[in-house]
Design a protein that fits this description.
By secondary structure, the protein is an alpha/beta fold. The protein is built from 13 helices and 14 strands.
Length: 388
């Protein structure tokens, strides 16, 4: 390996790190040690990894780096939500959001520069699409956040900031169209030698890439959320264009398959470092996300149509008040319309929560992430030409 081309170790899960170290003559246990230094301690300086042999530290300094995306901007909302704009090169920036709560700290991670799916109500989709993020760029967001917030629990109590306890793949991009890189990043999140997150505390959100929902269940089943946003194909074709390729019938069937063989409550834990290898979703329901758009999908008849979906798929509904962005063409449903909609679902015995809007004053709320995207699809240009 040349000095000019060092590898970024943030891009390796335990298997990849073991193979890399084997290539420089090291034994497998060194991979576990290095994994802890990289992710558990957030260390980037090989010289500080004091339980590694000196010869290995010298070899790592010669052949490898630890590089997360660099910070472009750091914004803090009035409610404590924090948003980072991170540089991923060539004029592109991605956004990562930390949402502090009393009992947990949730990090919303991006998987792509922009998004190719163009959901009508989403600011990211309006920016167009540039490329998939690498594993190092995905996991680098978690690595960066833990360093920025403070890994040490005592520092956490002193500052009032919370370390990351939950991860949601709900930032910029569609995670399941960057499948291989996202799954490798999930492996790192779940590995007890790295971040040690429970599969129940890691959520992948998808607009409905049906074949890769099946692949996710086989390769790395974590909690699954589906961006539903409409109760029928006609409306969903308009709001979530991928529905034209995989309509509701196919999507709901994939959701049922995903829940098949969900683990029992009394099931014994798996050995350290291999939690993702056990089949079956970690939860016995799908979370259906439903953005509330005034006069579009928020009428009582829409709520009643959702009851039929719930009869097909064990689920809970997360109602999301629309978060506006310039020229969106949509408005947020009124509090009364949202209350009435939720009441119909709950009166039928369903779980229906209303997501609290967080970070909207820094454009960090759901649907507002835009980043900096050098669009390869010319989507924004075509839209401007069409409106001229």
């Amino acid at each position: 390996m040349s000095l000019a081309d060092p590898v970024n170790l943030l891009g390796y899960d335990l298997r990849g790190l073991t193979a890399f170290l084997a290539g420089i003559g090291e034994k497998p246990f060194r991979a576990r040690q290095l994994m802890r230094w990289l992710h558990h301690f957030g260390e980037a300086d090989f010289e500080q990894m004091t339980d590694l042999a000196k010869s290995l530290r010298v070899a790592l300094a010669r052949t490898a780096v630890v590089e997360a995306p660099k910070l472009l901007a750091d914004s803090v909302a009035a409610d404590g939500t924090r948003k980072w704009l991170l540089d991923v090169g060539a004029g592109n920036g991605i956004e990562t959001v930390f949402i502090p709560e009393v009992s947990r700290g949730t990090l919303c991670i991006s998987s792509q520069v922009g998004c190719a799916l163009e959901c009508a109500f989403c600011a990211t989709g309006r920016q167009g699409f540039n490329r998939n993020l690498s594993v190092a760029e995905i996991i680098g967001q978690l690595w960066w956040a833990n360093r920025a917030l403070g890994r040490d629990a005592r520092a956490d109590k002193a500052t009032g900031e919370r370390i990351v306890s939950n991860v949601v793949m709900m930032g910029m991009g569609e995670p399941l169209t960057n499948f291989d890189n996202v799954v490798t990043a999930l492996h790192i999140m779940l590995d007890d030698h790295a971040y040690g997150l429970s599969r129940r505390r890691v959520t992948v959100s998808t607009s409905g890439v049906v074949p890769n929902i099946d692949r996710l269940r086989q390769e790395c089943p974590v909690a699954l959320a589906v961006s539903l946003h409409a109760p029928n194909d006609a409306l969903r074709d308009r709001l979530v264009p991928i529905n034209r390729k995989w309509p509701l019938k196919e999507l709901l069937a994939a959701c049922v398959r995903y829940l098949d063989s969900a683990p029992r409550e009394d099931e014994k834990p798996t050995p350290h470092g291999v939690k993702w290898q056990r089949q079956g979703a970690p939860r016995d329901f799908i979370t259906f996300e439903y953005v509330m758009l005034a006069g579009v999908n928020d009428r009582p008849e829409h709520a009643r149509q959702l009851l039929d979906i719930a009869r097909q798929v064990p689920c809970k509904y997360n109602l999301i008040p629309f978060n506006p962005f310039p020229d969106s063409g949509f408005e947020r449903s009124s509090p009364e319309a949202i209350r009435r909609f939720q009441e119909i679902l709950m009166n039928a015995g369903l779980i229906a929560t209303v997501r609290k809007t967080r970070g909207d004053d820094i454009d960090g709320a759901c649907g507002q992430l835009a980043g900096q995207v050098k669009d390869r699809t010319r989507r924004a240009q075509r839209r401007a030409e069409a409106s001229a």
